[in-house]
Amino acid sequence: MLINEVISEGQDFVLNGIEEIIVRAKARGMTKIKTPAIKAKLDAGGYFIDMKSLVRMLNSIDAVGAANKEVTSLDTALPPDADPRDDTVGKMASKQLAKKDKKL
Fold this sequence. Notes:
The structure is a single chain. By secondary structure, the protein is mainly alpha-helical. The chain is built from 4 helices and 3 strands, in the order αβααββα. The chain has helices spanning 2-27, 35-44, 51-59, 88-103, and strands at residues 32-34, 64-67, 71-74. It has a 3-stranded antiparallel sheet with strand order 1-3-2. It starts with a helix and ends with a helix. Residues 1-9 have low confidence and may be disordered.
């Protein structure tokens, strides 16, 4: 059971890193990201994952429309009750990016 806990915690750790990259990309208005670029960012951040597992994890994220080993398409659909003029998420993402830049 301990091995399963370690594997599960490791996957959550990597999944959080992937979701952070996806959220930043969406905040910048991107609709597609090259999957090897995502893998390179993860590797640079200390998350080591093979391409097959990365694609599987990308396809499990709600914010991702589809992913393969070449490109990841982000889901750009708005919820039916969303106001298209509401920029709250964009502002929040910009603040988080500014905080991260200050740390560097």
